[in-house]
Amino acid sequence: MDVIRGHHQSKNGHIPPCELRREQPIANDPFRRREVICRAGDLRLKTVGEGETFEDDTCTSCTIPAALQSKLACMYLHPVKLEQDGHVRTYSPCRWYYAAKPDRQPESIGEACTCCVQYFPRPPFKVLEMFGYWPLTAKIRETIADPSKLAGRWYSAPPPPYRPDSFKGWVMHILAIAVSNLRMRPM
Questions:
Q1: Which residues does residue 83 pair with via DSSP β-bridges, in sequence order?
Q2: Do residues 79 and 32 touch, judged by C-beta distance below 8 A?
Q3: S-S: 71 plus which of 17, 137, 142, 186, CB 3.0-4.6 Å?
Q4: CB 159 within 8 A of CB 114
Q5: What are phi and psi of 2, to 5 degrees?
Q6: Among 7, 5, 11, CA closest to 54
Q7: What sign for the dihedral angle of Cα 160, 165, 170, 175?
Q8: Which residues contact 142 (CB under 8 A, 6 or more apart)?
Q9: What residues contact 123, with CB distance under 8 A and at least 6 apart?
Q10: Per-residue model confidence as pLDDT tens digits over 40-90
C-alpha cells in the first residue's frame, strides 16, 4: 500500500494530506485497478484513473489530518470513522481508554488528550505500523460500532487502585506518580 502524499482536490476544493489515506489494489478486480481508501473508516474515496477529484467530500470535512499534525497527537491516538444514521462521524479514541465507555467516544483530540497521563509523543507512522496499528484500529472501530461486544468484560469497570503492601512499595508508588507529573508535555 502506498501513502497518498501531497494535496488533492475534491468536488468542493482542497483536501489536506493525511497519513491514513492509502492507495491499494482492488481485491478480485480483473482490470487490476487501484483504489484510494481512508483507513480510519475503511471507506473507498476514489478509483485511481477515473478522474482527478475524489468522489465525495469525506476528506474535506475531516478533522483527522489536523489532529494528527497537532502537538497533542499521541502515540496511542487511533482516529476512526464510522457510518452512523447515514452520516460519517469521526472519533478520536485512545488505545488505553476506548473500552471504558465505547458509546461515548471523544470527537476531537482536545476532548481526550489534553490532560492524559498516558501521553507519549507520536512517532513516525511507520513505527506505529510495526507495532500493530491497523489490527488494533479495526478492533477499536468494531468496539465503538457495537459496544455490546464488551458486555461482562473487565472493561466495564475500572481495575482496583494499586495498593502497595510495604514501605518500599509506597515509596516507589509515590516516586512513580511524581516522575509522571514532571514529564515534559507540549504546550
A1: 88
A2: no
A3: 186
A4: no
A5: -110, 140
A6: 11
A7: negative
A8: 149
A9: 75
A10: 888 877 777 666 556 556 777 788 888 888 888 888 899 999 888 888 888
* Residue where the block lists cell 473507498: 44
% the chain with pLDDT above 90: 1
Q: Which residues lie across from 94 on neighbouring strands?
A: 77
Contact call for residues 109 and 73 (beta carbons, < 8 A): yes
> Rounded to an integer, what distance in angstroms lies between the CA atom of residue 186 and that of residue 70?
10
Query: Is the predicted pLDDT of residue 9 greater than 60, yes or no?
Result: no
Q: What is the DSSP secondary-structure string of the chain?
A: -EE--S-EEETTEEE---TTEEEEEPTT-TT--EEEEETTTTEEEEETTS-SEESSSTTTT--HHHHHHSTT-BTTB--EEEEETTEEEEE--BTTTTTTSTTS--SSHHHHSTT-TT--B---HHHHHHTTHHHHHHHHHHHHH-GGGGTTSGGGSPPPPP---SHHHHHHHHHHHHHHHHS----
The answer to whether residues 113 and 95 touch, using CB atoms and an 8 Å cutoff, is no
- The set of cell numbers assigned to 124 is 513516525
User: What is the reported pLDDT for 178?
Assistant: 67
CA 86 distance to own-chain centroid? 21
C-alpha cell at 129: 505500523
Residue type, 115: C
